[in-house]
């Protein structure tokens, strides 16, 4: 519920969001979208953490990118740089034809 999300976010130490792995960031974005929770500071931390992940050398799973972009879109919380970097991080999968159809359609819907 919304109140549970507020309590969860308030219980996190400052900067904890910045250290979350991509999978947990995706889950957080989906949970926020489900209960329609938006906090500008939290959104900023999530965006910063995502940028670190997509700029890094770690492999990014398309389902995590889809969860994040879909969550942002549902909250109408677009961040141009996050969207662009996320899509660029998947460009090799798109070019190689290895991006699964479900993730692709979710990402395309979020970008529209």
Write up this protein.
With 112 residues, this protein is mostly helical. It contains 7 helices and no strands. α3 packs parallel to α5. The longest helix is centred in the middle third of the chain and has 16 residues. The N and C termini lie far apart (28 Å). The mean pLDDT is 90.
Strand percent estimate: under 5%
Distance between the termini: 28 Å
Question: How many beta-strand elements?
Answer: 0
Largest sheet: none
Shape: globular
Query: How many helices in DSSP terms?
Result: 7
Q: Percent range for helical residues?
A: over 70%
Mean pLDDT across every amino acid position: 90
Secondary-structure-derived class: mainly alpha
Order of helices and strands: HHHHHHH
- Which stretches are poorly predicted, pLDDT < 50 over at least 5 residues? none
Q: Cα-atom Rg, whole angstroms?
A: 14 Å
Feature tags:
112 residues, mainly alpha, 7 helices, 71% helix, globular
SSE layout and pairing:
Layout: H1 2-11, H2 22-35, H3 40-55, H4 62-74, H5 80-89, H6 91-96, H7 101-111
Short recap of the structure:
By secondary structure, the chain is mainly α. The protein is 71% helix and 0% strand.
